[in-house]
Amino acid sequence: MDFDANAIPESDSIILRLRSELAQLDQKLLLERKRQELEEKCSSLSAELERAKAKLTLHEAQAQQEMERRRGEFAKRYTELLSTTVASVRTTSLDESYMPIINQGEYREASAAVAKRLMYYLTLLSLSLEIKDMAFPRFLLIDTPQTAGIDPVALQTCIDRLKEVVESSDGNAQIILTIGDNRLTTDQEKHVFLTIPPGEHILRTIDK
Fold first, then answer.
1. Alpha-carbon gap, residue 140 to 176, rounded angstroms
2. pLDDT digit string (tens) for 11-62?
3. Is 59 helix (H, G, I), strand (E, B) or coil?
């Protein structure tokens, strides 16, 4: 067999071309593997994101249910307290700003403003004594409510409600009330712990 020396350069060229093509194929294979890894990772992250969204939706629904339940509890307790203070109150609820709506918004009597406000905070205190994770301090400081125009009988009733809530609870709570002279019943007078000189306010407390 004759040896063709001229074929050597051609063979070298073919070998180099094949090596280059092989290197390119190796690179494409590497990139394909990387692409598959990224797609699998992307798919995994997408699935994880969907699971997180589902959990968030569930938690939001549960939070909404809990919020509505708490709003219902507040409305029920507030109605109980306010209806025993203001005779014309039948129902209460909370609007989107958590302000009380009385008798479906039909109630407009300005004379009950003090009772509405006092019973609102007393309701929060009452619920905080039952719901341990409720973010409300078990303490109320009420300064001279009679100056806002409440009539003496309604004021006495409000003070009785304050006393009842604290004494009927199992938790610890305190209400400090400042009020003018000659405005308390004999039973309420038992809770006076400091009297400021005549003509000025008297500091009274109901605690447990």
1. 6
2. 778 888 888 888 888 899 899 999 999 999 999 999 999 999 999 999 999 9
3. helix
Asked whether 171 and 138 are in contact (CB, 8 A), the reply is: yes
Cα dist from 34 to 23, 25, 72, 129, whole Å: 16, 14, 56, 60
Burial grade of 30 (CB within 10 A; 0-12, 13-18, 19 or more): exposed
What whole-number distance in Å separates Cα of residue 48 and Cα of residue 89?
A: 52
Phi, psi of 93 (to 5 degrees): -155, 175
| Polymer length in residues for the chain | 208
Architecture category of domain 59-207 in CATH: 3-Layer(aba) Sandwich (3.40)
Q: What's the pTM value of the predicted model, to 2 decimals? A: 0.67
Tokens representing 198? 């005549």
Q: Enumerate the domain spans of the chain.
A: 59-207
**Ordered DSSP codes for 138-183:** SEEEEE-GGGGT--HHHHHHHHHHHHHHHHH-SS--EEEEEE-TT-
